[in-house]
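In this section we walk through a basic example: taking a raw amino acid sequence and producing a predicted 3D structure, encoded as discrete structure tokens. The instruction is simple. Fold the sequence below.
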Amino acid sequence: MHTLDQFIKSALEEDVFKGDLTTLATIPAIQKGKADCIVKEDCIIAGIELAISICNEINDELVCTFNYKDGDFVKAGETIGTITGSIHAILKAERLLLNCMQRMSAIASKTKLYADLVKPFNVLILDTRKTTPNFRICEKWAVLIGGGVNHRFGLYDAILIKDNHIEASGGIKNALVNCELYIMENNLEVPVIVEVKNLEEFKMAVDFNFVDRILIDNFLPESIHEIIECNNKRKKIEASGGINMSNITEFAKTGVDYISIGDLTHHVSSIDISLKIK
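The resulting token sequence is shown next.
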């Protein structure tokens, strides 16, 4: 698993590598100055802590002063903070810092919209693994900042039996029996989630004690009511598939515990944020 430090080092190597040739060619190495960070769209800001870590990695003498914190609402046109110190260091940080903040703020803003819609129904919004390769740590961080909850981080920290596992196992019962045996043989303690495609599969899955949560994928709200009644609060229920801003309240009203939305990280338009040297 990527740590935050590993991500920052890898991203800087990708962008800077042997050196920022343009800055080296045009600006004296001793020059110091200040840059304002300006948000150009209304948003939930995210990535401030990460921006500070990026600056510290490049030059620990850079001074980052932000008057907002991650999760705050920011209006368009606001200057949210300044970075002071070596101009060379500021320009090395600029693109990575902005790329991260722009995408993280977009994800946090979208997550907040969804989380607010389902809040009256005590439903939690989950992310998925539909993330940008090598940027998952930041995208899932942004979901938390926006008021969502992280699903499994990867393939290694939970068992999620989906349609392809069920098909390859020869059916849901085989998949669950195999899974139970694997857990016992390896003395595993991880969450177990199983996806079902109809009420018949649900009735099989709900009887396995080791299953923590049942994922109902691509169900209509009216079909979920039948599942909720059959469940009788025995398992946590997660809904996914075809859920968006226009219909999410209908799903939340059914009594599910979680709604997972790949769109949180999969389809976002970055927030416009700039860094301007004074």
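Looking at the output, two observations stand out. The CA atoms of residues 109 and 130 lie 17 Å apart. The first helix runs from residue 4 to 15. In the next section we compare this with other chains.
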